[in-house]
Write a structure and sequence with these properties.
Order of helices and strands: HHHHEHEHEHEHEHHEEHE
Bound molecules: S-adenosylmethionine
Largest sheet: 8 strands, mixed
Oligomer: single chain
Helix content: 25-40%
Radius of gyration: 18 Å
Shape: globular
Number of helices: 11
Number of strands: 8
Length: about 290
């Protein structure tokens, strides 16, 4: 599928599955779990199927903290987008691994601060594609677009995102809870480098990533259970130092790579929320 035209105003934009396109709909196999739908289940959402709920319940049984951790991750996403829009003047976001629409989607947070913000969402789950209309409700002044693509296909993502984003101006690249589904670290590093290469100095990189050195026993059990249920994907948690290396070529903003709930929390209570994800924000230095 090609990227739909940028959504303007509150009009839905065509091209989503569920709109009668058989090629898109046949990719939706509900008999096996998929990470977007399992994540939706952890968050208490309703956009999931029996296989996703079985995977969700099994992972919760070995690591009950996953639900709080997923919520802390969403809060991190909202805080970083708000910060970048409010304090760094960012008006363009490339959000890869969007997930199913929920509260505080990137365009809602950014456009609440700056209605002229432009957002390109990217995900490879057909159900996210089916729900893309909810992500394409842009303000009149801004724009949103959705691209059905794999993170590994950076060339295509960048080419098609250029229909909505101006790569001559700073862009925030959002890789929120997605890089741990790229098991090969060398490949993940190249993906991040390709994306950073395409944006000018002053752009930002935002990452959250499962930490193998945060509650190691629980995470190992969780990862084993999740991987048993996700036939098409593999979850690989990484150590904080490995996550920090993805930020090469950027200046890490304070407080660096920390538990996501500790990244500029709004309150002591928010900072305390249990999480197994590392997160950080870097500003591109050169280019
Ligand atoms: C754990 S969810 C995170 C959703 C959202 N970023 C958040 O943090 O709330 C991971 C998302 O990444 C997507 N994803 C995983 N691997 C991907 C890939 N290789 N290319 C594109 N999307 C991918 C999944 O479909 C899912 O929607």
């Amino acid at each position: 599928m090609t990227i739909p035209e940028a959504g303007k105003g509150r009009r839905p934009v065509g091209g989503a599955a569920g709109s009668g396109n058989p090629a898109e709909e046949c990719r939706l196999d509900v008999s096996v779990a998929h990470v977007a739908r399992v994540y939706n289940y952890w968050l208490g959402g309703k956009d999931n199927f029996a296989a996703d709920r079985i995977a969700g319940d099994n992972t919760i049984s070995v690591y009950p903290g996953i639900r709080l951790s997923a919520r802390a991750n969403r809060a991190f996403l909202a805080r970083t987008v708000r910060y970048l829009t409010e304090s760094e003047g960012i008006r363009q976001f490339l959000d890869i691994g969007t997930g199913l629409p929920t509260a505080n989607n990137t365009h809602e947070v950014a456009q609440a601060v700056a209605p002229d913000s432009r957002i390109v969402y990217v995900d490879n789950d057909p159900l996210v594609l089916a729900h893309a209309r909810a992500l394409l409700t842009s303000s009149e002044q801004g724009a949103t677009a959705y691209l059905d693509a794999d993170l590994r296909d950076t060339g295509r993502i960048l080419e098609q995102a250029a229909g909505t984003l101006d790569f001559g101006r700073p862009v925030a690249i959002m890789l929120i809870a997605i890089l741990h589904y790229i098991p090969d670290t060398a490949q993940a590093t190249l993906i991040v480098a390709d994306l950073l290469d395409a944006v000018p100095r002053g752009s930002f990189l935002v990452i959250s990533h499962a930490g193998s050195d945060l509650f190691p026993e629980e995470i190992a059990a969780f990862e084993k259970s999740l991987n048993e249920h996700l036939p098409g994907e593999r979850h690989v948690a990484r150590r904080r130092a490995d996550v920090a290396r993805f930020f090469d070529g950027t200046d890490l903003l304070e407080p660096g790579v920390v538990r996501v709930s500790e990244w500029r929390p709004a309150s002591a209570q928010e900072a305390d929320v249990h999480t197994t994800l590392w997160g950080g924000v870097g500003r591109k230095k050169h280019g």
